[in-house]
Amino acid sequence: MSAQENNLSFWEHLDALRVVIIKSLCAWIIGAICVFAMKKTVFHLLFAPSKSDFILFRAICRVAQHFNANFTTPDLSDIQFLNTELTAQFTTHIQVSLWGGLIIAIPLIIYWLYGFISPALYEKEKHYSTIALSVSILLFTLGVLLNYFLIFPLSFRFLSGYEVYSEVHNQISLSSYISTFLILSLLMGLLFEIPILTWFLNKIGILKAETLKYYRRHTFVAILIVAAVITPTGDPFTLLLVTLPVYLLYELSILIIRKNQS
Q1: Domain membership flag for residue 56
Q2: In terms of pTM, does the model score above 0.85?
Q3: Got the DSSP string for 98-112?
Q4: 159 to each of 35, 82, 123, 153, 255, how far by Cα in Å?
Q5: What is the residue range of 99's domain?
Q6: What digits encode the pLDDT tens for the residues 99-133?
Q7: Is residue 199 situated within a structural domain?
Q8: What is the mean pLDDT of the chain?
Q9: Number of Cβ atoms within 10 Å of the Cβ of 97
């Protein structure tokens, strides 16, 4: 840390933080405007997992054909999306734009925040924090992609085809589809931060690999309960899809910490 940075007053630090917040808000707004303007492309991507020709279903079909298994691409053509509220389509467009703008702005926001706090860190702390930030962004992205390409399409296929009575037809509301997609994406992104969180707790001496190994069974039950609470659909199929990758991340955390301790 330089002498000039050490001599900054409280109000100068506050002013620097204010600049970071203003720049972050501007980046968010610009990102949201870009997403808003790309309505056709954005909503095509959002509704792609609800189509029979989605990449996941085509891939499963090709694998099944290779092994001579009986699997056909699901017929989702009869699924109808409807809107019953006058302002819902416009507010949904705004909601998706804000979320998309935030996703676009997050790398810049993290970079600016890191630039604000980095003068207070030692060189070793800067090294570890840079690694942690990079890995956390990567893990969050992987969680969102897993939801988009696997968890949400399979959940949608299962739930949209499920019926309690043949005379009851599924008509899915726009708000239900979008909110389920966004919530699952956010939750999977956050749950994928488990390895970096455990790594950080190990670095500061709070957590050890032996502790994680001892509480394996307890953790599996806890993950199952948390997944049941946070899963918006509440069905066992989606519950299993959320629980398994999160528990595998827990096992990965044990390996990372064990290697870190050795």
Answers
A1: yes
A2: no
A3: HHHHHHHHHHHHHHH
A4: 29, 16, 51, 10, 36
A5: 3-146+164-173
A6: 999 988 988 888 888 888 877 777 776 777 788 78
A7: no
A8: 83
A9: 21
